[in-house]
Amino acid sequence: MKPISVASALSVAYLGWRSLGWPLIHDAPLFHYIGWLLAEGAVPYRDVFDVNMPGVYLLHWALVATVGPGDVVWRLFDLGWLALTSGLLVAYATPLGGRRAAVAAGLVFALLHLAGGAWRAGQRDFLLCVLLLSGAWGVARSWERRGALPPLGWSGLALGAGMMIKPLAGLFWLGCAAAGALGARRAGRSPLAGAGAVLCGGLVVPAAVLGWLGWRGGLGPFVAVLGGYALPFYGQVGRVSIWEAIGGHRYGWPVLGLLGALGVAGLIARVRSDFEIRRALAAMGVVYGVAHLAVQGKGWEYHQYPLMFFLSVLATAALGPAAFTGWRWSRAMPALGRVAVLGLLAALVVVLDAKGLEAVDAPWIGEKERRVSAVVRDLEPLLRDARAREEGGRAVTVQVMDVTAGGIHALLRLGVRQPTRFIYDFHFFHDGGDGRIQALRAEFVSGLETAHPAAIVVFKDAWLAPGYERLADLPALGALLERAYALAVEGDGYRIYAKRADS
Strands of 398-401's sheet, edge to edge? Predict the structure, then answer.
């Protein structure tokens, strides 16, 4: 196994070094922009319409406010979180298969993350893995310490923080509460105390975050966004089957197949009885990972993180030197089992290497970076002119109609706010017959009519409704553009409409 681990370590080092030049891309600029808005005094949901949990915004707010929104800082944060995640995996899984096996599994997960490419950097589901495993570890420590309650409280605390990033972490929280109850009963303690420690610990962070949100005036809008849009609409749009969610990505099935086979081997491998709970919790994590992927239903590759992470933990048990010594069907079975899992591990590393080499210099990264720079360059003179004309110190704003094509990143670099709370636009272009979507459209156009932004930037690439033709669903916006704006720039994948001086 040592040669494979060395090869994995070299691949991780190479891809990590090559990734240092990755810019903020895809979802990261969006959340960084929200973090910057919060640093400027904005309140989530009231001033920013978005469907994510407030913990995501607080994380990006902390980064932007302390070290700034730069690309290099984000890369270092992502790599640091990867080191933390892999290190925690090694520490948790060492009793399952030994230090070398755990290190091999940690390297596989690190390679899996880097091979995913720039768009998976710092994704919420990746960030969640640390908190999920911390929750499992707390339960495991309680079992290993005859039902001790403090580790269960820490387990709940970690999982409560996870729910503020992805609410689906609540499923794993409930599973850990049940395991905590079983562990307490096993140790002769009250099952209610065991479950209660996890459940009560899990309420601390949500209570603090939602309390802060209420204090800032964002709790009501949060409930409105959740109940009026996220649950009835967002959860249903763009859904694909779990098979498409895996097979629709480059090397999707080979990676899952090889890692899944190692996970299954880990389930049947020999593990010391006093650490069996760690394997059981990892297996529960795999079940949760499948639910995490299926319930979200969008098919985005980063939704696989919890599944892949817990399969990596299970794989440790299969990679240990004594993994198959308990097989007595044949004297050759231990040796054959060892050869099989090492073959699976080697094949997985090769596949991830191929995936990583394709992803590290993917052409779309450079293309998107060039577009962001072009939008910044095209907007700068328009903003200068608008500021020169503006009286009374009124802030100059720009509205982008975009999701991840680069417009939000351009505004972040320029330090320019949008005139409405709608930082992207896809929610205007589905379920148009529903009154709630019509109300969002009306609010959006009304905000533009009131604020008169210096420019409106429309991007051709868009989720759900690509193409400039989607503006036909917003006739009031078309009328505003015709009356008060002029096409100033026809860029590569975007159009900039500048406010007329006489409007």
Answer: 398-401, 455-459, 494-499, 485-490
